[in-house]
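Incident log, structure service

09:12 report received: a user says their structure output differs between two submissions of the same chain.
09:20 pulled the input from the user's history:
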Amino acid sequence: MNAATINPHEAAHFGALAADWWDPHGSSAMLHKLNPVRLSYIRDQIDAHWHVDARERHPLAGRRALDVGCGAGLLAEPLARLGAAVTGVDAAPENIAAARDHAAGQGLAIAYHAGELAALPPATFDLVTSMEVVEHVADPAAFVAELAARLAPGGLMILSTPNRTVASKLLLVEAAERVGAIPRGTHDWDRFLRPEELIALLESAGLAVIDRTGLSPSPARGFKLGGSEALNYLIAARHAG
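09:34 re-ran on a clean worker, output below:
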């Protein structure tokens, strides 16, 4: 993330939550519920993109993965277990400290960096992920361009973000924060991106969208893929051409 993309207020907000990021019943409980569904989507896209057998335990073996806005490593660790050499970057130093401690306890070698994505050593990655991040940056267009610059030729990018709809304003911002399901101040509804807006940013950065799906609440499982995009959605992209 170059100097134009990190929002210091957002970094401070999430840094303050670092201590209990890994507590499934703490302030990040919603992320713990979202994570298995997002991982399922990522795995499906990996298998389709690289023609991997769904039974393969390490589909990312020999590949490099970058998780941007990694928090304390909730997605970075599963990517490492799928065989990737993982780099995680986050705007909040507190999150990176928590991520390093947790990865060490799990015996996982993940390269974590605090600060700007643009400050990382020059490198590209086969898989670039950024979950629930683009709505928190100061300059979404510059952020997406920076993500695209880190994507290797033939690589795969996967993003998820809330949609800017009446439903998301009522449920994700007003109701969820009021009842404590999400920490107060987490979301600024005006900064949510509609799918067509995010797709336009991706295309302007030289990427082509190859898949898109909704992520919605499920009474049985907490969340499910497919169906309505009214609250949240995932997008997979690659270099155009």
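09:41 both user submissions now match this output. Likely a transient worker issue. Closing.
09:42 reviewer note: The first strand starts at residue 64 and ends at 68. The longest helix spans residues 29-50.
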